Each structure stands twice: as C-alpha cells, then as structure tokens.
Amino acid sequence: MSRGLLTVVGVVLFLVSAASAQAPSPEAMAAARKLVVTLKIADQYRAVLPQLLLKLRPVVAQDRPEIEHDYDAMTAPGSDLYAPFFTSMVDQIAAVYAASFTVDELRQIEAFYAQPAGQKLLEKSDALAQASAQIGQDASQKAADELKQRLIEALRQKGHKL
Q1: What's CA 115's distance to the chain center, in Å?
Q2: Is residue 113 packed enough to be buried (19+ CB in 10 Å), middle (13-18) or exposed (0-12)?
Q3: 3-class DSSP assignment, residue 8
Q4: Interatomic CA distance for residues 28 and 104, integer angstroms
Q5: Tell me: the pLDDT tens digits for 123-141?
C-alpha cells in the first residue's frame, strides 16, 4: 500500500505544481471531495499516520517513559491530533482534482469508481502497476540483451574485434 500512496502523493504534488492559480468553484470542490472519498485516498493517508507517529515517538519522547506514556495517549487511535492535517490534505487533493477536471468529468469519474468495476480497479491497481512495471523491466532487459548480441555481431562482420 505504501507504494500506492507514494504514487498518489507524487501525482498530487505534480498536479499541484501544474494546477491553475484560480480557485475551483464550490461545486467543483464538492464533486472533487466526493471523488477523493470514493478513490479512498484519505484511507491510504489514514493508514500511514500511525507509522508516522511511531517514527516521531523516539524523537519527541527521547526515551523518557513519562513522556512516552503521554505521547501514546495523545496519539491514540481516534485522537483528533492530526484531524487538521488530514482535512487540509483532503482539501488540497480535492483542489488538484477540481482544477484538473470539469465538474461533469469529476462526476463521471466518481460514478465509475463508485461502481463494482471501479472498486475492483482500485483494489487491484497496486498489484497491476507492480506487475506492469515488472513486465516492462523484463521486456527491456530481454530487448537489451538481444540488441547487444545483434549489434556486436554486426560490428564483428564489419571487422571490429569485440
């Protein structure tokens, strides 16, 4: 899942940098927020937060049990500690989508992903991306090996010693 999240974050950052300076309409933002929920982008972020807080624990608590106890209580599941960051992230992602698609397109995309086929695509997208990348790497390696042999042979026929 982390690879998928990194991909999403990378795409979002790319789109944010390319997004128009004009603010999307409230209607576009509403449609985009609905799409973000349907795409389960927020769920991916929510799943990463405990890992983030776990990595911060030794830095903040400094191996002091009294601080660790309070830290754990403050960051317990259900804590609203990161709610503002979560809301901000969702709004920023929604703004990127709203700036990238028309309201009608957002609704069409959301309608697709809300259907069983769209949900299945979301469920399988990480595995499909990994399998596709592996196929691309394998095909590239095979092509490189074969082309190397052909080029070496062609150069030898021209009298080069390789």
Answers
A1: 21
A2: middle
A3: helix
A4: 9
A5: 999 999 999 999 999 999 9
Helix (H, G, I), strand (E, B) or coil at 159: coil
Q: What single DSSP character describes residue 101?
A: S
> What six digits make up the tokens of 60?
């903040």
pTM of the model as a whole: 0.65
Rg (the chain; Cα; Å): 24
pLDDT in tens, 86-103: 889 899 999 999 999 999
Helix (H, G, I), strand (E, B) or coil at 26: helix
Q: Please answer whether residues 124 and 76 qualify as being in contact, where contact means their C-beta atoms are separated by less than 8 angstroms.
A: no
What whole-number distance in Å separates Cα of residue 71 and Cα of residue 103? 43
